[in-house]
């Protein structure tokens, strides 16, 4: 179990990366390379910096205004084991977890047999924004996502009902 993450950066208070006030962790490394990506500097798996998740937890403890944490990217599912550990600790603190990924919810479900760490991260995630960014479907009017093909999914409800439930 890894307690370190390779990150591109941290936004200590964000109101655009999910509901409420959030600490956002931008993971380093992404295989999707979406045309027009908002964070192309996060694509390389070699860049960024290494951080102990305890340092992130300390940041959270210092801010009682936070509603949750958001894992953005890059793609957190490329470091799913460590993000799952961090997510579990954040949930134990009473906060919610939101994850962005270029994979679809269905791809994650199908891939969990070969990548059990995906299951761990999915199961600590409350809200998932899935799918690659599509520049042809880009809109600045969309809440918490960049293109209309992406979905904001209520993970717990989706897992319970065995169908995608959109977060409202």
From TrEMBL:
Q: According to the UniProt entry, what is the EC number of this protein?
A: 1.97.1.-
PROSITE patterns linked:
RADICAL_ACTIVATING (PS01087)
Q: What class of enzyme is it?
A: oxidoreductase
Q: Name one Pfam family in it.
A: Fer4_12
Q: Report the catalytic activity.
A: glycyl-[protein] + reduced [flavodoxin] + S-adenosyl-L-methionine = glycin-2-yl radical-[protein] + semiquinone [flavodoxin] + 5'-deoxyadenosine + L-methionine + H(+)
The record's annotation in Gene3D superfamilies points to: Aldolase class I
Q: Which UniProt keywords apply?
A: 4Fe-4S, Iron, Iron-sulfur, Metal-binding, Oxidoreductase, S-adenosyl-L-methionine
GO MF, any single term: metal ion binding
- Give the CDD domains listed for this entry: Radical_SAM
Q: Which prosthetic group or cofactor does it need? A: [4Fe-4S] cluster
Q: Which InterPro entries does the record associate with it?
A: Aldolase_TIM, NrdG, Organic_radical-activating, Radical_activat_CS, rSAM, rSAM_sf
Q: Which family does it belong to?
A: Belongs to the organic radical-activating enzymes family.
Function in brief: Activation of anaerobic ribonucleoside-triphosphate reductase under anaerobic conditions by generation of an organic free radical, using S-adenosylmethionine and reduced flavodoxin as cosubstrates to produce 5'-deoxy-adenosine.
Name the chain's protein.
Anaerobic ribonucleoside-triphosphate reductase-activating protein
Organism, as annotated: Sporanaerobacter acetigenes DSM 13106
């Amino acid at each position: 179990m890894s307690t370190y993450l390779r990150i591109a950066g941290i936004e200590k208070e964000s109101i655009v990366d999910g509901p409420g006030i959030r600490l956002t962790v931008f993971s380093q490394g992404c295989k999707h390379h979406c045309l027009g990506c908002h964070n192309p500097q996060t694509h390389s798996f070699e860049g960024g910096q290494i951080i102990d998740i305890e340092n992130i937890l300390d940041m959270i403890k210092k801010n009682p205004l936070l509603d949750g944490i958001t894992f953005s990217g890059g793609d957190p599912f490329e470091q799913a084991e460590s993000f799952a550990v961090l997510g579990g600790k954040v949930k134990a603190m009473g906060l919610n977890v939101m994850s962005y990924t270029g994979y679809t919810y269905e791809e994650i479900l199908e891939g969990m047999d070969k990548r059990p760490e995906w299951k761990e991260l999915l199961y600590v995630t409350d809200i998932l924004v899935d799918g690659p960014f599509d520049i042809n479907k880009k809109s600045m009017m969309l809440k918490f996502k960049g293109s209309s093909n992406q979905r904001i999914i209520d993970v717990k409800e989706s897992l319970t009902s065995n169908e995608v439930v959109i977060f409202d």
